[in-house]
Amino acid sequence: xxxxxxxxxxxxxxxxxxxxxxxxxxxxxxxxxxxxxxxxxxxxxxxxxxxxxxxxxxxxxxxxxxxxxxxxxxxxxxxxxxxxxxxxxxxxxxxxxxxxxxxxxxxxxxxxxxxxxxxxxxxxxxxxxxxxxxxxxxxxxxxxxxxxxxxxx
Length: 153
What we know:
It contains five helices and five strands, in the order ααβαβαββαβ. It is of the alpha/beta class. The longest helix is centred in the N-terminal third of the chain and has 11 residues. The protein is globular and about 40 Å long.
């Protein structure tokens, strides 16, 4: 999907967190951080979010999408593999009491044990795990009604 909201606009939290926490994308993990704030609106519209939704966000990165989603939904489960991103993610989610951070491999996390159970999946996935991660959520999360995914290459 192409953004029709104009040219890319870097989000200030992304740039600040990259500087403050000395973060650089790890190519070996296929990381590409969401830094275009226009994409937040595109994702929000595509996900058709409601205040009672529980979102599973795979690939929390710098927390920009997480902090956009949290005020809009009942709960966000954010999964991030890279422990080096945990301080930046905690910085993003600190103001919210409806976000649970799972520093774990999304391909190994027990999705059925998540509480509350997700109703939507929003993901910013590395190319190498995209198909597997999406299939896992389809197979294991019966209550999910909508998936919105971006695949990084």
